[in-house]
């Protein structure tokens, strides 16, 4: 896998990686057949404008995080058909294809393309072009599928991650555990990268950590626990007292702590049982925990649900943690991977508190409780309403597969050719495109929150602070409002021109921060999980009239008989 990623040396980017699978042939065949037909009928130098946008926010929500731009730009930077690509295409296209077309393809590059885009990480809304591509029609057409594949899943999973973050709140640690359940290795890598942008703190995916500089984190699996049956199996039993050369028999200390715990907490009602009883703990589990602690005395975190969380996992974990403490090490906590996570986390916390006061180890109360097991956004909301004591969530399947909505419907539509606007009509009004190249502004109210996104024609003067501007619903005539913005933000920048990236690109960390800031700028009611308020996306009066005139002139008048 690592070799699928290659270093891309660049003027503005250093140490950035590009996924080797992203190349000009990673597209749909029809892009190439259309390019041929454009070329053959004399349209190769026509100048086209395409908009990339989506029509509906995912997950019954009212916002989306725009992601994938960095990869789109790297795709432009490396876009070249290789000799073997051309040989392959010669075998795929019809034998009647003129040979000069293949010379044209061999030579083609995005040097005459201009790419305008919203900044990666920005909160975006339906109908708003996220990216605008201007340039020779065949080249602009050839970019469609690849740009869509780079933006669609990235934005979807970043949005999903942002929703999990909002559900969990800013204090909880969120770890992405999805690689094993993702849609293939590339889906897994993309998920790790874009979940980080959306607000996760780390991933268990080691390659993602290396490639994208994301913190890698993890615990251990049930296999590690079931690999042990008794303390006798442990070949290594010794641990150094922290900061000294003194080596002591750690296993003896662990055993004595289990004794102390069962003596002291014999009457402590934990769950439905009357106390911690040594005969109910699993010795194999104790051996697994002790041996893991010997390997990671400063980072000990145990998976406690293999046999019975309250009767075995927690007593065994506590014995090992207190033995570590006796030698100067601080354990980290536990992971719960089954059962009622609200109830168990509360019982575990209560037990930690009791142990903390019984043995005068106040820090023990705050040992980390990680929860995992098929967690989705609703589970987190439900846990919040029940009350729980979980500090960190490990989330895989539902996060990376975006179970609630597996695709964001981003599309790429032609809106202008040779300065002449194009409109795509549809029975479904929502599918009618907004013609021509457009400018985009986010207008803010005096409380600092975004009020509306305003799309204008390029030749219009930008809205200005304090000056009333008419914002119209793009399709419903009666829906319109005046806005006097307290702040106006122009959302497009040119990222690609003259064959190179022409903006400094933020780091992944920068994009992550942008996402959080941008989310904070929209009102809470747009962000809430249940029945959020739609954010307004409007067009200027001039654009409204322009598009509706074009609509009428393109819609054939029927004849009834
Ligand atoms: N308190 C809770 N409130 C709501 N959902 C919960 C709560 N606790 C756990 N869950 C969720 O309920 C589901 C329980 O799934 P399931 O019954 O398959 O697992 P389990 O029996 O606990 O564990 P396993 O089968 O993995 O041993 C999981 O999706 C989990 O995230
Ligand atoms: O549940 P997810 O959100 O996908 O999170 C990832 C899961 O991966 C591991 O399970 P494992 O593969 O060991 O299988 P399990 O379901 O039997 O625990 C881990 O214990 C989590 O439960
Ligand atoms: O580190 C973990 O606990 C982990 C990693 C991947 C999947 N499930 C759990
Ligand atoms: Mg599991």
From TrEMBL:
Keywords: Ligase, Magnesium, Manganese, Metal-binding, Phosphoprotein, Pyridine nucleotide biosynthesis, Transferase. It catalyses: 5-phospho-alpha-D-ribose 1-diphosphate + nicotinate + ATP + H2O = nicotinate beta-D-ribonucleotide + ADP + phosphate + diphosphate. It holds the Pfam family NAPRTase. Catalyzes the first step in the biosynthesis of NAD from nicotinic acid, the ATP-dependent synthesis of beta-nicotinate D-ribonucleotide from nicotinate and 5-phospho-D-ribose 1-phosphate. Helps prevent cellular oxidative stress via its role in NAD biosynthesis. It is an enzyme of class 6 (ligase). GO terms for molecular function: metal ion binding; nicotinate phosphoribosyltransferase activity; transferase activity. Its cofactor is Mn(2+); Mg(2+). Transiently phosphorylated on a His residue during the reaction cycle. Phosphorylation strongly increases the affinity for substrates and increases the rate of nicotinate D-ribonucleotide production. Dephosphorylation regenerates the low-affinity form of the enzyme, leading to product release. This is Nicotinate phosphoribosyltransferase. It comes from the Eukaryota. It comes from Owenia fusiformis (Polychaete worm). Pathway: Cofactor biosynthesis; NAD(+) biosynthesis; nicotinate D-ribonucleotide from nicotinate: step 1/1.
């Amino acid at each position: 896998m690592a070799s699928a990623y290659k270093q891309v040396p660049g003027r503005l980017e250093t140490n950035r990686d590009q996924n080797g699978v992203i190349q000009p042939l990673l597209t749909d065949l029809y892009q190439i057949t259309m390019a041929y037909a454009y070329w053959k009928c004399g349209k190769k130098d026509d100048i086209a404008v395409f908009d990339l946008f989506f029509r509906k926010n995912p997950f019954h929500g009212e916002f989306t995080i725009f992601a994938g731009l960095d990869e789109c730009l790297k795709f432009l930077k490396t876009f070249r058909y290789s000799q073997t690509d051309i040989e392959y295409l010669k075998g795929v296209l019809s034998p009647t294809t003129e040979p000069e077309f293949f010379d044209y393809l061999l030579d083609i590059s995005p040097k005459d393309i201009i790419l305008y885009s919203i900044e990666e990480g920005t909160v975006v809304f339906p109908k708003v072009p996220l990216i605008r591509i201007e340039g020779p029609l065949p080249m602009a057409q050839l970019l469609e599928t690849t740009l869509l594949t780079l933006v669609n899943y990235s934005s979807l999973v970043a949005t999903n991650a942002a929703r999990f973050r909002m559900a969990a709140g800013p204090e909880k640690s969120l770890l992405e555990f999805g690689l094993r359940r993702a849609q293939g290795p590339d889906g897994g890598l993309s998920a790790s990268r874009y979940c980080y942008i959306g607000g996760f703190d780390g991933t268990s995916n080691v390659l993602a950590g290396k490639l994208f500089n994301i913190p890698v984190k993890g615990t251990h699996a049930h296999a590690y626990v079931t690999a042990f049956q008794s303390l006798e199996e442990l070949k290594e039993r010794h641990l150094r007292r922290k900061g000294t050369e003194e080596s002591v028999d750690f296993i003896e200390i662990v055993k004595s702590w289990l004794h102390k715990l069962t003596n002291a907490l014999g009457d402590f009602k934990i769950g439905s049982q009357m106390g911690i009883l040594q005969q109910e703990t699993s010795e194999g589990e104790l051996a697994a925990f002790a041996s893991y602690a010997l390997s990671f005395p400063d980072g000990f975190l145990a998976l406690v649900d293999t046999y019975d969380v309250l009767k075995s996992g927690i007593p065994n974990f506590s014995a090992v943690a207190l033995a570590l403490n006796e030698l100067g090490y601080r354990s980290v906590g536990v992971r719960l991977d089954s059962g009622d996570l609200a109830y168990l986390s509360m019982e575990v916390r209560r037990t930690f508190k009791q142990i903390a006061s019984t043995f005068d180890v106040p820090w023990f109360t705050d040992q980390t409780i990680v929860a995992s097991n098929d967690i989705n956004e609703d589970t987190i909301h439900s846990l919040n309403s029940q009350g729980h004591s979980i500090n960190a969530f490990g989330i895989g399947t539902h996060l990376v597969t975006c179970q609630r909505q597996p695709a964001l419907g981003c599309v790429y539509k032609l809106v202008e050719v040779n300065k002449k606007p194009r409109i795509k009509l549809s029975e479904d009004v929502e599918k009618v495109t907004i013609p021509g190249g457009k400018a985009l502004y986010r207008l803010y109210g005096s409380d600092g929150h975004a009020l509306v996104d305003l799309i204008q024609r390029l030749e219009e003067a930008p809205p200005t602070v304090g000056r009333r501007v008419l914002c119209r619903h793009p399709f419903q005539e009666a829906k319109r409002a005046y806005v006097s913005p307290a702040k106006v933000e122009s959302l497009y920048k040119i990222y690609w021109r003259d064959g190179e990236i022409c903006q400094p690109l933020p780091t992944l960390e920068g994009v992550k921060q942008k996402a959080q800031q941008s989310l904070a700028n929209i009102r809470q009611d747009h962000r809430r999980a249940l029945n959020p308020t739609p954010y307004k996306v409007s067009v200027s009066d001039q654009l409204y009239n322009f598009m509706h005139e074009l609509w009428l002139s393109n819609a054939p008048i029927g004849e009834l008989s």
